[in-house]
Amino acid sequence: MNEPVLDVRNLRVAFRARRSSVTALRDVSFTLHPGRTLALVGESGSGKSVSSLAIMGLLPPNGAVTGGAIHYRAVDGSVSDLTTASKSEMRARRGAEIAMIFQEPMSSLNPLFTIGDQIGEMLLLHTDLDARQRRQRVLEMLELVEIPAAASRIDNYPHELSGGMRQRVMIALAMVCNPALLIADEPTTALDVTIQAQILDLMRRLQKELGMSILFITHDMGVVAEMADDVAVMYAGAIVEQAGASELFARPSHPYTRGLLHSIPMPGRPEGERLVPIPGTVPPLHAMPEGCAFAPRCGLADEACRKPVSLSDFAPNHRVACFHAGREVTHV
Ligand SMILES: Nc1ncnc2c1ncn2[C@@H]1O[C@H](COP(=O)(O)OP(=O)(O)OP(=O)(O)O)[C@@H](O)[C@H]1O
Fold it and tell me: What was the ipTM of the complex prediction?
């Protein structure tokens, strides 16, 4: 396989609270290869967004990378560690080489400017195109993301568009400089299922046509099944299972991954099957259990789980952080 675009190694992120600090990412490692989609999946609070903000160099002021590295391979083949990049280096990369789309387009789009101006602004920042060329390129982007009547929509303000159309604008904004890496943080969560399917289709088509690599952040295993080539399951700031998507769905082996799969309807599973929510919630960062963080919610937990557990090989290209990996939960 080609050299990775992104190779995150033992990444640690901490947030300062008033008198103490809490660790939000604990030795997170994953690899994204060119042209592929890696899904980071987990419940709210598992550390998915913190991972993406660390990659973008956009952690909030009270957050910092406290260990590990984020190796990024630029289009010219040079590899650098984003955790040590300067603010100006990151500013030059964001939008041009590494782009991000968020769940809620309204919070990323400026209500005071037309969508054409906002997408054009990216070109103004990162290219030498003149005003006429920029407008032409914006129009092509709006057509590429299938905005109907793009020539008149280009002068619309965000509030004049539907939610689905706004998400298409966000995608156009992210893709206009042809980034090598796209980070998509729950891009379809706020949309109804029909529109969600259309946006996922669009992202797959753009990936095929433009060849970018996608880090896809979601809590939804159904979306993972639709989009991912590779999957990293996160729980309480750590990766608990990692595999190719087909291997993960064929042999989910961490009790948390199995719990996620049993808690939602999945294509291909018997109709009327009982859905079982995972009991309890993700522990707060200041009250992490000593050993396996999932143990308090796990039907397989025993004495062994009081010891810290880390990812280990379970099968080829399949790693699991569980002393009981692969064992069936007999009671939930
Ligand atoms: N600015 C902050 N200060 C302190 N803690 C934070 C801050 N931002 C995030 N955290 C904590 O980091 C942990 C991981 O949060 P994160 O937003 O990455 O989770 P997530 O998996 O993306 O969840 P969601 O799907 O809800 O966005 C959470 O416990 C959260 O409370």
Answer: 0.92
- Per-residue pLDDT tens over the stretch 203-261: 999 999 988 999 999 999 999 999 999 999 999 999 999 999 999 999 999 999 999 99
E-strand ranges in 113-237 read: 181-185, 213-218, 230-235
Classified by CATH at the fold level, domain 6-34+42-97+217-320 comes out as: Rossmann fold (3.40.50)
For residues 107 and 101, the answer to whether their CB atoms sit within 8 Å is no
What sign has the CA pseudo-torsion 49, 196, 181, 145? negative
Could you tell which of 13, 15, 260 is best to mutate to test the pocket of ligand 1, judged by most ligand atoms within 8 Å of the CB?
15
Among left, alpha and beta (phi > 0; psi -120 to 50; other), residue 93 is alpha
**Nearest CA residue ID for atom 3, ligand 1:** 15
Q: Dmax over Cα atoms in the chain, in whole Å?
A: 68
pTM of structure: 0.91
| pLDDT tens digits, 163-175 | 889 989 999 999 8
Q: How many CA atoms within 13 Å lie on the side-chain side of 72?
A: 24
Q: Residues enclosing ligand 1, CB less than 6 A?
A: 15, 24, 42, 44-50, 60, 62-63, 219, 285
200 close to 188: Cβ distance less than 8 angstroms: yes
CA 187/CA 326 separation, integer angstroms: 31
Domain boundary assignment for the chain: 6-34+42-97+217-320
Among 50, 65, 235, 240, the mutation site with the greatest number of ligand 1 atoms within 8 A of its Cβ is 50
Q: Which residue's alpha carbon is nearest to atom 31 within ligand 1?
A: 45
Q: What is the pLDDT of residue 271?
A: 66
